[in-house]
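Thread: Newbie trying to understand structure tokens

Hi all, I'm a second-year student working on a class project, and my supervisor (Dr. K.) asked me to get a predicted structure for one chain before our next meeting. I've only ever worked with sequences, so writing a 3D structure as a token string is new to me. If someone could post the tokens and maybe explain what I'm looking at, I'd be very grateful. Here's the chain:
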Amino acid sequence: MKEIKKISITILIVMISLCFNITKVEAASISFSASSQNVTVGTTVTLTATVTAGAWNLSINGNGVNKKMVGNFDASYIGNKTVSESVTFTPQAPGTYTFNLKGDITDFDTEKAENVSKPITITVNPKEQSGGSNTGGSGNSGSQDKPDESNVPSESNNNKPKQEVTKSSNNSLKELSIGTGKLTPEFSRDTYEYSVEFDDTVNLYDLSEIEVSATAEDEKASVRGTGKIQLTEGENNIAINVTAENGAVRTYTIKVNKPQKVEQSALRLKTLVLNGINKNGEYQTINFDLDPETFEYNLTVPNEITAISINPTTENEDIIIETNGSDSLNEGKNKIVIILTSPSDNTITTTYTLNIERQAAIVENNDAISKEQIIYMAIAGGIVLIILIIIIVAIIKHKKKKQLYDYDEEDEEDIPFASNETIKDFENNTLSEEKTTEPIEEEKELKTTDDVAPSKLKWADFCEAYEDEEKIEDKQKKDKNKGGKRFL
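---
Reply by user tm_fold:
Sure, no problem. This is what the structure looks like when written as tokens:
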């Protein structure tokens, strides 16, 4: 039991220790301070910027000072990290000098970025004049908060009160505008840096100057840097200096970017990606090696590629890219032209030509018979076969029916014409069954004589012609082979 208590107490102590050792996570923030905000000419001022954040991108600007502060999340440190940067400034003239710490910071926990701006103003007084026993001389009394008292009346006139002469230190602008484009952000007396945005109606390549107008808040302050400002290619920093009555100077800056003119030698492709598209809409990469100084290419693609996708890019994003030619590919030769045009002069161009040959389709064997054709042919063949069988059966039946009536032409000459009476007598068995032994030639002679009638027929000849039906059938078959005539 005692051991359990000891273990519990130990665990409790460890947990309490951990709670006390937990580092408090601070929210993201910045601070900007100066070693002194009221100094005399020649005195060095140290400006210190402190940032607590997970990531930061800041800069200290003003009166010739430009210090960057860039940092990111540190994997070895959990939470917002605090860092500091310092810069020094030594004024050479009296006046009011403004510095600004601005940019953006990101909180480690929320990962939310925040734009920040922290200005600070330094007042610089003239140096204290030395020498002279007159305490009311023209020198500064030594106080940094007081202006030059050289114009203070002499104490010798005891009848008049002392009059302290002060000069205005207001060196802010009331208005700031430009003749072409738009200031961004919008003007504010406490914002000292601006850029200019132009719409599509302005040809920056031909823009040679810009007019700047500014008005000071104090009528006694003077403004320099306005009017028509000449522009050069690249970044132009236009400084508008506002000098207060007491000599303090404040500077407003306008940045104008004028693009460089693009000559023909700069009109070149950076990349060119070609993708073939088949009948199913699927993409296929086409191997292609681009040489920016080669302006014509010959390519061959398979027949299955029916269209092509072209994606050209240039180093200068302002270059105008135009593609002429159909994306769909016909069998055989196809031509696609890519034209690069200078944004500063539309008469300056560079042309790339793609000669793309799509291969012909593979011809299939036309002699091959499809399954449908085989089925149709089988059906037609069956019908024809059935018809032939019917015709053959009909012919056979017809032949058998007519076999009994076939005879030879010679037999027609041998068999004399029999009258109706003779046939009748034959049927009634009235004729004699005697056979003649006389030769056929004799009978033929008798037929030609006037004593024998042509209608008479010898019984022997008749019997011989029809004696045996089987013999007659055999003879008919023979006659048939000889080509004899038939009749019903």
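A couple of things are worth pointing out once you decode it. The chain is about 20% helix and 35% strand. Helices lie at 2-21, 371-402, 409-414, 420-427, 440-448, 459-466, 469-482. Feel free to ask follow-ups in this thread.
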